Amino acid sequence: MGLSIFLLLSVLTGLLLLLFKGHSKTHGHLPSGPRPLPFLGNLLQMDRKGLLKSFQQFQKKYGDVFTVYLGSRPIVMLCGPEAIREALVDQAEAFSGRGTIAVVEPVFQGYGVVFANGERWKALRRFSLATLRDFGMGKRSVEERIQEEAQCMVEELRKSQGGLVDPIFLFHSATANIICSIVFGNRFDYKDPQFLRMLDLFYKSFSLISSFSSQVFELFSNILKHFPGSHREIYKNLQEINTFIGHSVEKHRETLDPSSPRDFIDSFLLRMDKDKTDQNTEFHHKNLIMTLLSLFFAGTETTSTTLRYGFLFLLKYPHITERVQKEIEQVIGSHRQPALEDRTKMPYTEAVICEMQRFADLVPIGVPHVVTKDTVFRGFILPKNTEIYPILSTALHDPRHFEKPDTFNPDHFLDANGALRKNVAFMPFSMGKRICLGEGIARAELFLFFTTILQNFSITSPVAPEDIDFTPKEVGFGRVPPVYKICFLPCTMDSGKRNKTLQGH
User: Fold this and answer.
1) Which positions in this protein are listed as binding heme (predicted)?
2) Average confidence (pLDDT) over 22-51
3) What DSSP string describes 442-455?
């Protein structure tokens, strides 16, 4: 009996190996990597701390380009700025396909500007870029919108009267209102219950997408999708947001004036009407909802999370905060609002903002790509639709380009004369044809929100600087900062007196 079971197991194992061997031949000549097992892929070689930690360890052994099997799916990893740039910029067209993230795939299903491919993606991206530009430079420029929102945020912070504040929803509200003003045509009050509900759903969803359970789901989604888990909560959250977006679209449809589009939704509805006889058009309701969800989510979560991380860094390093505030006083003063034209005269502040983005490392694994055709890359043959992960974290922490990659240090972006310098490894928005749509808006928001807050407030924490911990709540496709409390003390005096007040607070 025992011999029969042994023989049966041997035959089954042999068949699995043959199946797997035959399957791998369809994958061209992929880069080497850890040896996978049938079905399990490289699961047994993975670090318990998650995908990013595993990929970083594999990089040390296999170099900057290697293959990892997530379950039965081979995925080519690109590590370091040179490999990422060589693929996403030098061979931009070939690497311009969009891969999937398993936990959000049931919601997007290849629709909307972020997860679309082929002609759908090209049409939606062209339209989105042009429309965002038009409404960002129209009657009220993006700069004016951000300046107005920054003042609303200052007024809200004054209400705290120097007490402890959890900055999550304040930063969420401010950044969401910028994209809302462009996309929906209006901003929301910071106490609006429906608005706060949407922001809470975004925050929870970003945390769940970045969780360990979502990383496990990425390996075995075909099986795990049939069982309860965080993927179902993400689906429920995003569908509730889609319902909110759908109601807004209907209101726009009822009040649409074709001669005077108010915002992104109006412009898309007009394009839908123009293309209504074209059966192949990509301008239809589903692409509108999914594009709005993409813009709303990306336009809210990334910038607000960078601000949250950024102010935590400043609490840890008060000497950096002091130097930024000194530059603000010298260049802007206290009697006018910060403006984008101030950036060129404020190299230290700009260096601090760049270092905030680098060190926060918000999308460490990068959003997945696929190759759009059979592609030769560094001597390897990547068949069409091979999945690619550009591991942005390996560029942002590359010791060849950042002297102290694991330390928050604005000098990474300053030359010997204190002038701002570019760094080829700095790619927080990714690169190439799939670079973040809202990069320009995000950079403007970070500068104007950051400088306006520090122009009006000094910051302090009940936790001593040496005890402040940066350890994230979650690290997966995103990095979620720890929850913390901060005091915003109104500035009513010069920096010398301000620092004495802070020390006594």
Assistant:
1) 436
2) 82
3) HHHHHHHHHHHHHH
Output the CA torsion sign for 173, 446, 334, 329: positive
Domain limits, the chain: 26-490
Give, in order, the Cα–Cα distances in Å from 288 to each of 69, 241, 242, 249, 285. Answer: 34, 14, 10, 9, 5
Q: What predicted TM-score, i.e. pTM, was given to this entire model?
A: 0.90
How far apart CA 456 and CA 325 sit, in angstroms, is: 10
Give the model confidence (pLDDT) of 386-444 as tens digits.
999 999 999 999 999 999 999 999 999 999 999 999 999 999 999 999 999 889 999 99
Residue 25: exposure state from Cβ atoms within 10 A (0-12, 13-18, ≥19):
exposed
Residue 152 assigned as binding residue: no
Rounded Cα distance between 185 and 288, Å, is 15
DSSP characters for 16-59? HHHHHHHHHGGG-BPPP-SPPBTTTBTGGGS-TT-HHHHHHHHH
Question: Could you read off the pLDDT of 287-328 as tens digits, one per residue?
Answer: 999 999 999 888 888 899 999 999 999 999 999 999 999 999
Span 151-201, pLDDT tens digits: 999 999 999 999 999 999 999 999 999 999 989 989 999 999 999 999 999
How do beta strands 479-480 and 73-79 pair? unpaired
Q: What is the rounded distance in angstroms from the CA atom of residue 360 to the CA atom of residue 358?
A: 6
Q: Which CATH class is domain 26-490?
A: mainly alpha
Residue 184 DSSP label: T
